[in-house]
Amino acid sequence: MIEKANQEKSPLSIILLDIDHFKQVNDQHGHSVGDQVLVAFANLVKEVIPKNYIFGRWGGEEFLLICPETSEIEALPFAEHICSSVESHDFPVVHRKTCSLGVATYHHGESMGTLLSHADKGLYHAKETGRNKAQFWDMGTGTVSHLNLPTTSLPESNNECGC
User: Fold this and answer.
1) DSSP letters spanning 65-101
2) Can 61 be counted among the known catalytic residues?
3) What CATH number is attached to the domain comprising 135?
4) Among 61, 72, 74, 80, the one annotated catalytic
5) GGDEF domain spans which residues (predicted)?
6) Containing domain of residue 116, as a range?
7) I want to staple 13 with a disulfide (CB 3.0 to 4.6 A). Which of 34, 37, 70, 148 is the partner?
8) What letter would DSSP give residue 64?
């Protein structure tokens, strides 16, 4: 993906997603319910992402979303859209869950490891500052921020209603 972004000089963003307080689901309801929540979460995210995005489980309750041809101006509002979709979803047994997201955008010369590290810093900051939000790691300033961006149209999702 990075090689393609370099060759085509196209933007690339990644989003790390983490289900908030997931350990409590396993502890209170058992791993079977935890597995149901993970599957429901993954299916929900798959419904709202564009077909050209790559989505998968990263480990535990963390997921990785690779967003080709997506700049930071598009990635953070899209991450916030995912966050609100999760918050309003009715999950099995536990009903309501939230998630925290870390967003990072590729800059020429970065490795995938560096990009992942930046997204992880955004995710960590989202968790540390109250959860249920998306935070963007700004490589230029070396800080995490919640961008105040103009409203942009969200990338077209996989579902028919465009939600």
Assistant:
1) EEEET--HHHHHHHHHHHHHHHHT--BTTTB---EEE
2) yes
3) 3.30.70.270
4) 61
5) 10-139
6) 2-145
7) 70
8) E
Q: Which tokens belong to 143?
A: 């800080």
Cβ–Cβ under 8 Å, residues 82 and 101:
yes
Let me know if residue 157 belongs to a domain: no
pLDDT tens sequence across 145-156: 654 434 444 555
Length of the chain: 163
Q: State how many domains the chain has.
A: 1
Compute the distance between CA of residue 84 and CA of residue 96 in angstroms, rounded to an integer: 11
Which stretches within 16-156 are classed as H helix? Answer: 22-29, 31-48, 72-87, 112-128
Residue 144 CA neighbour count, 13 Å, CB half: 19
Q: Find out whether 109 and 24 touch, Cβ atoms under 8 Å.
A: no
